[in-house]
Amino acid sequence: xxxxxxxPEVQTILDQARGPQTRRVTVGNxxxxxxxxxxxxxxxRDQWIYFLMVDRFNNPQAPPRFxxxxxxxxxxQGGTFNGVRxxxxxxxxxxxxxxxxxxxxxxxxxxxxxxxxxxxxxxLQVDPRFxxxxxxxxxxxxxxxxxxxxxxxxxxxRGIFVIFDIVLNHAGDVFExxxxxxxxxxxxxxxxxxxxxxxxxENGHGRSDWTEAPLNPxxxxxxxxxxxxxxxxxxxxxxxxxxxxxxxxLKELVTALEQFDANRGLLHPAHNILIRAYQYAIAKYDVDGxxxxxxxxxxxxxxxxxxxxxxxxxxxxxxxNFFTFGEVYDNEEQIARFIGRHAAxxxxxxxxxxxxxxxxxxxxxxxxxxxxxxxxxSSMFEHRKQLERDVISxxxxxxxxxxxxxxxxxxxxxxxxxxxxxPTRFADQPTLGVGCLFVLQGIxxxxxxxxxxxxxxxxxxxxxxxxxWGKADAxxxxxxxxxxxxxxxxxxxxxxxxxxxxxxxxxISGDGIHFGISRSTEGVLAFSRILNDQELVVVTxxxxxxxxxxxxxxxxxxxxxxxTYEVLFTNKILTQNGERRGAAPGxxxxxxxxxxxxxxxxxxxxxxxARALRVALQNMEIQMLRQxxx
Length: 630
Known about the structure:
The chain has 15 helices and 29 strands. By secondary structure, it is an alpha/beta fold. The relative contact order is 0.10.
């Protein structure tokens, strides 16, 4: 197995990836031939992403190691690569376009708490604990590699792309600190100069004779590849976050380190090591994208360099649209420093393609639950439009730069949560929230188990990291959330405007005269997605108790008086036989000049002429409407 980024095994894999081949994959009772490297999607907005934690999704060979399945368990539960693979049909039928896997690279084997995968010890190997037989995989690493490759290949054969979660900012808990009082600790308070450290051996014990990185330790000791095993490549100054320092016990890399070589000039050793290691991952496992953990903790120039290096390498092997998106847990201004053509910088800088949409996450879940006014969402998008006006030429273009979500593994409560009666009284909120997620601008991402009604909550992130397969009937394709998300995915797939369209938030009115963006809690969120000559109108009533009837402004040029709309999607069951059919909207009506007062999202006030559509929604209902064409 490779121990260096310059190992012959690494170079062989990189070279082989440049030669197109085919591979035969068993899918059910059929054999499917796929090209390798597998081609990228033409546009990532055509996909939606399903994010799962490998350790918490499925193991067909054994139940979760600890009960209850949704308890606060901070150790490995036993999910496997093959467990994910056995449920690929389930995911395909749900409509999943891309599968985002939590980190798969080898973590510290002596640490039972890094089931999440973010504490990497070897950047060239796969963690054997995700294999169907972990002990055998520890003795023979190719077993875990083969099962991961089989998962990726079958996903491709089913038309599902695969995204690896990766880490650039830090490694695992690969050394201990020697504190001022002589004691030893995995963590230390931040200070201005490096601490003395003891690198850990294969059993996790700090070695007092390893204050400098050991030259040739066992495979489970210190850190790999060989080039990374240098003291100066680690900060060694304790906890620090954005200011520079460890992420708890996960040891920060000094990605900004510069060294001058007489023959090669100025070098950035951490850059070179990480870039080659992750290019190797692309080549070996044929993945289609990377989600980059803790992106905001690294320098924006390295983010730019890394994003371009992945894109260019992928282009050399035939992946023309390799996708990178990063975790920038911050506001719009910080995100703009990292993604797309850097909106906050001059020049045509590219960098990482997209970011997780935290600004939307800070607003949408509360709006969908009726806890925050819909105007908060429209104001957020208006601010984004202004911030990125120099690089975004169309209202629809911003949708390429953001991966949107309602919840994830870092929160303490899932979106579907109420302390008392969420499973009954608020059962329509998840489908309303996911409905908004799927039709607002962006590439939507669904957290595993949402489709089966997982509703963990607590005071720590383990509350939302349930071992899904331990739930009774865990992969029930008849679950109402599963079937509703199926219909949502199909609607999004069938309507290009929901993927590429310009987005306009629409003023609403209860009296047909005074229109405005809803500024009260439990309000109505209304917006249009327009592509060419087609307008799709989305109206959401977030009130948990009362229905709403009123009018919504629509595009004057695209909607003649008397035009009719049909309901493409609703999350409500309105007929006795269980058919989902929203109340039909009324025809488009004229609003003559001077007879209305319209408060637009940007604060301006107009008085017509305008056109409006009359709609009627139940409590917690979302409707997607399309003009009827003869």
